[in-house]
Amino acid sequence: MARSEVGAGVLVLSLSYEIGGPIVTVAMLSLALNLALTGVFILIVKRLIQNVPESAATQSPPVTGVSTD
User: Fold this and answer.
1) Which of 8, 19, 40, 52 satisfies CB 3.0 to 4.6 Å to 14 for a cystine?
2) Over the stretch 9-63, which tens digit does the pLDDT of each residue have?
């Protein structure tokens, strides 16, 4: 289960126990913002890796400072 689904479940449980007030409102807004920004993050990462050649993406960087003695 994803974290946002768990957060939504906790909010539903808190409402079922009649827990309310500004803290629940802040929690709902925080969850909505988290969901929206996750999509933005994915779009940014897709755009960043768009121009990376496939061979550069699969190569591992050279290891420096390691002695094989």
Assistant:
1) 19
2) 888 888 888 888 898 899 889 988 988 898 899 999 999 988 877 776 667 767 7
Instruction: Name residues whose C-beta falls within 8 Å of residue 57's C-beta, 6 or more positions apart in sequence.
Output: 49
Return the structure tokens found at 7.
């957060």
**Residue located via tokens 């420096």:** 64
Give one DSSP letter per residue of 17-44, joined into a string: TT--SHHHHHHHHHHHHHHHHHHHHHHH
Which residues fall within 8 angstroms of residue 31, CB to CB, at 6 or more apart?
Answer: 4, 7, 8, 11
Per-residue DSSP letter, 2: -
Q: How far apart are CA 8 and CA 3, in angstroms?
A: 9
